[in-house]
Amino acid sequence: MADAGYDRSVFINCPFDEQYRPLFEGIVFAVMIAGFMPRCALEASNAGQFRLEKIMGLIAACKYGVHDISRTESNPKGLPRFNMPLELGLDLGCREYAADQGTKRLLIMDRSQHRYQEFISDISGQDIMAHRNRPKTVITVVRDWLRAESGEETIPGGDYMHRRYLVFREELPTLRRRLKLDLRRLPFVDLAKAMRTWLEENEQ
C-alpha cells in the first residue's frame, strides 16, 4: 500500500463502523478510480507501534488528506468521539509546521456545511464540504476536490464514478469468491485489493 509515493497518496480519516461503511467504500473507490492510493489507519496492525504514531506516519506520507468530522455524537456513556477532529488537527499541524509538508492538500467534510461550527469553530474559514450521508455525494465531493487540487484533467466525472461504483458493488460477491476473500468481512487491505483488481479488469 505504501508504494504509490507521497504525491499519489491520500490519507482517509473517517468513521470505520458499519453504518458509515457505504460512505467509506465510496471514498476509497473515488480515490482509486481517480488514480491515487488510499491510505488509512486500518491498513496495518503492528502491535509494537502506538496507534497515534502509526497515524502520524501515514499523515506525513500523504500529500492529500480526506477528513470527515461528521461522527461526533456521544456514545452510550455520554462521551463524544474526538478521533476524527484529532487526526484533522494533526494533518493541519503537519501542513503548517513541517518544513517539507507545505504542499499538503486537505478536504474537510461534514453531514451539512455549517454543522461543524457547533463543536469545532476554530476551523472556521476552511471550506467544509457537505456529503449529507449519501455515497453518490461523497464520491462527487472527493472527485471534484482531487480534480481541482491535483490539476489532472484525466480524472473522470462524479456521475461516471458513481455508476462504476454501483457496478463494482454488484459484482463484489463474485469477485470476493474468485480472489478467495472472506465473504463475511472485508478488511481494508482486501477491499483495496478487490477495487484495484476490478478497476484493472474493467477499464472503460
CATH topology: Rossmann fold
| SSE succession | EHEHEHEEHHH
> How would you characterize the largest beta sheet?
5 strands, parallel
What is the count of DSSP helices, taking H or I runs of 4+ residues? 6
Mean pLDDT: 88
Looking at how many chains there are and whether they match, the oligomeric state comes to single chain
Describe this structure in words.
It is a single chain. The chain has a 5-stranded parallel β-sheet with strand order 2-1-3-4-5, sandwiched between helices. It has 6 helices and 5 strands; from the N terminus they run βαβαβαββααα. The protein is an alpha/beta fold and 204 residues long. The protein has helices spanning 21-33, 51-60, 83-97, 135-150, 158-178, 188-201; strands at 9-13, 37-39, 64-68, 105-110, 128-130. β3, α3 and β4 form a beta-alpha-beta unit. The longest helix is centred in the C-terminal third of the chain and has 21 residues, at 158-178. The mean pLDDT is 88.
Topology:
Layout: E1 9-13, H1 21-33, E2 37-39, H2 51-60, E3 64-68, H3 83-97, E4 105-110, E5 128-130, H4 135-150, H5 158-178, H6 188-201
Parallel strand pairs: 1-2, 1-3, 3-4, 4-5
Features:
204 residues, alpha/beta, Rossmann fold
Question: What is the gist of this entry?
Answer:
With 204 residues, the chain is an alpha/beta fold. The chain is 44% helix and 11% strand.
